[in-house]
C-alpha cells in the first residue's frame, strides 16, 4: 500500500494527522524536516505528501515549503502534494497549485476535506502509476514493431497511431487493395509507403499519382500512357503510371476528387487489370497493387450520386483511418523535435524548443495536421534569433493556451472576452458543473481533471474557454 508522508515540524500536528489517516485506513510516515522528507521520497514508497509550508519558528513566508515542494516535483513529478499552513498567502498557494500541487488547505483544517483530498490523491497516484505502466508497455510495443517492420521514418508516440501503424504492417503482407482515409496533411502518403515497404512487392516500384488532380483530358495519358501522335504535342511514347508500377504498388491519392469519367476508366482497369495506351489498339495487362487515399467521405458521396459504389468496393477491401493530429497530442512534440532537427542545416547551431513553445504546440488545434506542424517548424527555424524556439517563431504567440496540465495560460483571455457557448442551456450548465467538480476534486491539476472526464488536456482547456471557466477563480472559490 502506498503511504501518506506527513511533513511538519510540529509533532502535535503530525500526531493528529497520523491518527486521522489511520482511522480512515491510510498508512503514514512522518518527517519533521524537508531533508528527511526527501530521503523518504527517494526510497519510492510514498503515494501522497501532506506538507507544511514553514519549518522554522520565526518563518511565515512559505518559501521553505515552496522550495520543498519544487524539490519533491524534481524527484517525482507525478507525486501528489497537499499544502497546509496557517500563514502562506493565497497568491503563493495559487502559484504552487499552478505548478502542480494537488490542493491547498489552511490550518486549522477540516478533517473531512483533508481525508477526501488525500484519498483522491492516492487514487490518482495509483492511476498515474498504472498509466506509466501502460505507457511503458506501449513504448515496448512500438519498439517491437520497429524491429520487425520498416516504418519508413515515421515518428509517433500515441496509442492511436500505434494501432494505425500496426494495422498497416499487418495488411501489408496481403495483396488486397487498401483505402487510407483521414484529413489533409495527416500522413496518408507515409502510411501508403509503409504498406508497400512491408509487402512482398517492396523490391518493386512504388508509384504515386494525384488522381484527383488530373483533368479528364490528361487522365488517360497519365494513368495508361500514350503513343506518339496520340494527341497534340505527343512527340514520344509515354509510359503510364499503371505500366510503371507493374509488379509493385500504385498509390492513388485524393481519389475522392476523381471525376465521374475518371472513375469509370479506373474501374475498368481495376476489374480486368487491362488497359490500352492512348492512341494504341494493343491491350496491356499489369499486376499492380492499389493503395488509395482520400480525405472525403466516400459513402456520403455515393449517397449524393457523385462517387461510384462499385469503385469503392474495388478500392476499399481494407480501410485504414488516420486520426487528425488534434486527437493524438502525444505525437506533437516528437514530430516537432524531428522536424526541427531535419531543418537545421550544416554549420548552424542546433535549435531547441522552449517551454513556452512546447505549451503553444500542445495547445494548438492543428487544422492542417502534420503538414501544418512541419511548416510551422520550418518557419521557426528561419525566424529564430537565438538557440531557443519561441511561440512567436512558430506563429503561435497569441493563439495557443498553455496545456502542461497544471498552469493557466500566461495571456489567457478572461471569460468576458469569449463568445457564449452554443447549445441547450441545461446541457451547457450540466457540462459546466461536471468540469468545475473535476477541477475542484483534483485541486486544479488539469491533467488529472481531464483524465477523469475522459478528455485530453487541450480539449479540456478549450471547453473551459468556451464555457467561461477560469482556473484561478475556481481555486479561490474552493
Automatic annotation (TrEMBL):
Residue intervals of the Response regulatory domain: 3-122
Pfam families membership: AAA_lid_14 (PF25601), HTH_8 (PF02954), Response_reg (PF00072), Sigma54_activat (PF00158)
Region described as Disordered: spans on this chain: 393-426
4-aspartylphosphate sites (modified residues): 52
Gene Ontology BP annotations: phosphorelay signal transduction system; regulation of DNA-templated transcription
GO terms, molecular function: ATP binding; sequence-specific DNA binding
PROSITE patterns: RESPONSE_REGULATORY, SIGMA54_INTERACT_2, SIGMA54_INTERACT_3, SIGMA54_INTERACT_4
Composition-biased stretches (Polar residues): 405-417
UniProt domain Sigma-54 factor interaction: residue ranges: 154-382
Keywords (A to Z) from UniProt: ATP-binding, DNA-binding, Nucleotide-binding, Phosphoprotein, Transcription, Transcription regulation
Identification of the protein by name: DNA-binding transcriptional response regulator, NtrC family, contains REC, AAA-type ATPase, and a Fis-type DNA-binding domains
Amino acid at each position: 500500500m502506498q503511504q501518506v508522508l506527513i511533513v511538519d515540524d510540529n509533532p502535535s500536528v503530525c500526531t493528529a494527522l497520523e491518527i486521522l489517516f489511520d482511522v480512515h485506513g491510510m498508512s503514514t510516515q512522518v518527517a519533521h524536516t524537508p531533508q528527511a522528507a526527501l530521503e523518504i521520497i527517494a526510497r519510492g514508497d510514498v503515494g501522497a505528501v501532506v506538507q507544511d509550508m514553514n519549518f522554522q519558528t520565526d518563518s511565515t513566508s512559505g518559501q521553505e515549503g515552496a522550495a520543498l515542494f519544487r524539490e519533491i516535483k524534481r524527484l517525482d513529478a507525478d507525486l501528489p502534494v497537499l499544502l497546509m499552513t496557517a500563514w502562506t498567502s493565497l497568491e503563493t498557494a495559487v502559484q504552487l497549485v499552478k505548478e502542480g500541487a494537488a490542493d491547498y488547505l489552511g490550518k486549522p483544517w477540516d478533517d473531512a476535506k483533508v481525508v477526501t483530498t488525500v484519498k483522491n490523491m492516492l487514487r490518482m497516484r495509483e492511476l498515474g502509476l498504472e498509466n506509466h505502466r501502460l505507457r511503458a508497455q506501449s513504448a515496448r510495443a512500438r519498439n517491437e514493431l520497429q524491429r520487425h517492420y520498416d516504418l519508413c521514418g515515421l515518428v509517433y508516440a500515441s496509442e492511436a497511431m500505434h494501432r494505425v501503424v500496426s494495422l498497416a504492417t499487418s495488411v501489408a503482407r496481403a495483396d488486397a487493395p487498401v483505402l487510407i482515409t483521414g484529413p489533409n496533411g495527416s500522413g496518408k502518403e507515409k502510411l501508403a509507403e509503409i504498406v508497400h515497404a512491408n509487402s512482398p512487392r517492396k523490391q518493386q516500384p512504388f508509384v504515386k499519382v494525384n488522381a484527383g488532380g488530373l483533368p479528364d483530358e490528361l487522365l488517360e495519358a497519365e494513368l495508361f500512357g500514350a503513343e506518339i501522335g496520340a494527341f497534340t504535342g505527343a512527340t514520344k511514347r509515354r509510359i503510364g503510371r499503371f505500366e510503371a508500377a507493374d509488379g509493385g504498388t500504385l498509390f492513388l491519392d485524393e481519389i475522392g476528387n476523381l471525376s465521374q469519367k475518371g472513375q469509370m476508366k479506373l474501374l475498368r482497369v481495376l476489374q480486368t487489370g487491362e488497359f490500352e495506351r492512348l492512341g494504341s489498339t494493343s491491350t496491356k495487362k499489369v499486376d499492380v497493387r492499389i493503395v488509395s487515399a482520400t480525405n472525403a467521405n466516400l459513402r456520403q458521396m455515393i449517397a449524393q450520386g457523385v462517387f461510384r459504389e462499385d469503385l469503392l468496393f474495388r478500392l476499399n477491401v481494407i480501410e485504414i483511418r488516420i486520426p487528425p493530429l488534434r486527437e493524438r497530442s502525444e505525437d506533437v512534440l516528437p514530430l516537432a523535435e524531428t522536424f526541427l532537427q531535419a531543418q537545421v542545416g550544416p554549420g548552424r547551431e542546433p535549435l531547441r524548443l522552449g517551454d513556452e513553445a512546447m505549451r503553444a504546440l500542445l495547445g494548438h488545434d492543428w487544422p492542417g495536421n502534420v503538414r501544418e506542424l512541419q511548416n510551422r517548424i520550418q518557419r521557426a527555424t528561419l525566424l529564430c534569433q537565438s538557440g531557443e524556439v519561441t511561440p512567436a517563431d512558430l506563429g503561435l504567440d497569441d493563439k495557443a493556451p498553455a496545456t502542461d496540465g497544471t498552469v493557466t495560460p500566461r495571456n489567457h483571455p478572461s471569460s468576458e472576452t469569449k463568445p457564449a457557448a452554443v447549445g441547450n442551456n441545461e446541457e451547457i450548465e450540466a457540462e459546466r458543473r461536471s468540469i468545475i467538480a473535476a477541477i475542484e476534486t483534483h485541486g486544479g491539476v488539469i491533467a488529472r481533471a481531464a483524465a477523469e472526464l475522459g478528455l485530453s488536456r487541450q480539449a479540456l482547456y478549450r471547453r473551459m474557454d468556451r464555457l467561461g471557466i477560469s482556473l484561478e477563480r475556481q481555486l479561490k472559490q474552493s
